[in-house]
Amino acid sequence: MSVSVRIPTILRTYTGGNAEVSGEGATLRDVLAKLDSDYPGIGARILDESGKIRRFVNVYVGEEDVRFAEGLDTPAPDGTQISIIPAVAGG
Amino acid sequence: MSHDFGPAVALSCRECGARYPLGPSFACLECFGPLEAAYEFGNVTRADIESGPANIWRYRSLLPVPADVATKPNMNPGWTKLVKAGNLGQALGLKSLYVKDDSGNPTHSFKDRVVAIAVEAARTFGFHTLSCSSTGNLAGAVTAAAARAGLDACVFIPANLEAAKIAMARVFGGKLIGIEGTYDEVNRFCSELIGDPLGDKWGFVNVNLRPYYAEGSKTLAYEIAEQLGWRLPEQIIIPIASGSQLTKIDKGFKELVALGLVEDTPYKIFGAQAAGCSPVSTAYKAGHDVVQPVKPDTIAKSLAIGNPADGPYVLDIARRTGGAVEDVTDPEIVAAIKLLASTEGIFAETAGGVTVGVLKKLAESGRLDPEAETVVLNTGDGLKTLDAITGDDAKPTAVIRPSLDAFRAAV
């Protein structure tokens, strides 16, 4: 199960400057766990101490904000694009 | 290279307090929390402010801008009218009601305030293109400000916006890109663009310039207090899109108190949403402190942000000040636009229909003190959301031949 993960600018220090890395896992939770083993420390930037997605991070699996889907249990089928994006606002 | 941001000395994370140098960054490296300007204010007096220009630059010593900001080409927004709304107050049983009417800004919405601060930051950082994700008003404010400042502009909007907002954003030049999707999708797109070489040297006013941009909303608080005779209002009704404006008005009031410019009197902050996009109101009523995002469906397009980043802070402020968050339906929004127009001669955009609608709802349900000094915000101009006025409301009362008999028969 290979997926592509888009890394926001502020996390690219972990990925050697790469904006896009490949990941693996059946669900978003698995993908993030694998991401953290490939790039140690990146997981704690995305998930808080209790293992939940941080309040000011939006994670998309394909086109869907995972808060509308199954959160960390959202399936990550082969070829999916996952994006990690800081929450911003101001219309 | 050192940047001149006046009294602002650093960026600090609103969540965890981590501090960063003043730069084009917006999210905390530790926790992704939003970064805000942190200040070392000098001694600021009422007299200093009162001797300043009749625009937001009278408050330059409270904003992240250089001291000579007023000499640079910008839109000079602000110092809009605070209208004593006796007729509307009487209709709603409120003794002392004011409308802060921000439709009087250069591009007819409050967005000129925030953009003016962002333009200065863009200039300071040497950006050549001004950009944003917008629900409409912001796009026009950005393209106008870029034209005046001599910057390029490229702004992004949901493709289905009101025609007037599209025309307004186009007329000032620059590029206007419609995205097939909601505002939240436009926002996501901009966040991805910012990390791409395509967006290099671009100042996205509400993304990488957000710590500066957002401070512009504090000027609403300063003006209201100064226009009330250097007093805080007791009750204020503020629209919620991202929630940024509401949190910054609260911040502005607190700064005025801390600087000794107003007496430390209690105020209640009420947030207003459209029922068709009410994630913050829903969370407030359910007693939650997190906000579950929604897919917006309302005529109040300028407030149609389904995933409001400052939602949690709005909840904190409404609860801390003893206010509330409430929402009104699209028909109630239209009725409120008509009520404000027919009582006070102010034609509000749909967001103003939301605040006045919520004002009415709060007043009728006894959640406002009828004796207390109350301010309701109108953040934009009804001419931009004419779609809201339909059917008989958008037609003449009668069409007659030019004769007295015909007129007599018609009325």
UniProtKB/TrEMBL annotation, chain A:
CDD domains: Ubl_CysO_like
Positions of transmembrane segments: none
InterPro entries: Beta-grasp_dom_sf (IPR012675), Mopterin_synth/thiamin_S_b (IPR016155), Sulfur_Carrier/Prot_Modifier (IPR052045), ThiS/MoaD-like (IPR003749)
PANTHER family membership: SULFUR CARRIER PROTEIN CYSO, SULFUR CARRIER PROTEIN SLR0821-RELATED
Name of protein: Molybdopterin synthase subunit MoaD
Native organism: Nonomuraea polychroma
Automatic annotation (TrEMBL), chain B:
Tryptophan synthase beta chain-like PALP domain residues: 77-380
Top-tier EC class: lyase
CDD domains: Thr-synth_1 (cd01563)
Keyword set includes S-adenosyl-L-methionine: no
Keyword Iron: no
Known cofactor(s): pyridoxal 5'-phosphate
UniProt GO MF annotations: L-serine ammonia-lyase activity; threonine deaminase activity; threonine synthase activity
Signal peptide extent: none
Known EC number: 4.2.3.1
InterPro entries, per the entry: Ser/Thr_Dehydratase (IPR050147), Thr_synthase-like (IPR004450), TrpB-like_PALP (IPR001926), TrpB-like_PALP_sf (IPR036052)
Any one Gene Ontology BP term: L-threonine catabolic process
Alphabetized UniProt keyword annotations: Lyase, Pyridoxal phosphate
Pfam families found in the cross-reference section: PALP
Residues the record lists as N6-(pyridoxal phosphate)lysine modifications: 111
Family: Belongs to the threonine synthase family.
Family matches, as NCBIfam families: thrC
Protein name: Threonine synthase
Organism: Nonomuraea polychroma
Organism lineage string: Bacteria, Bacillati, Actinomycetota, Actinomycetes, Streptosporangiales
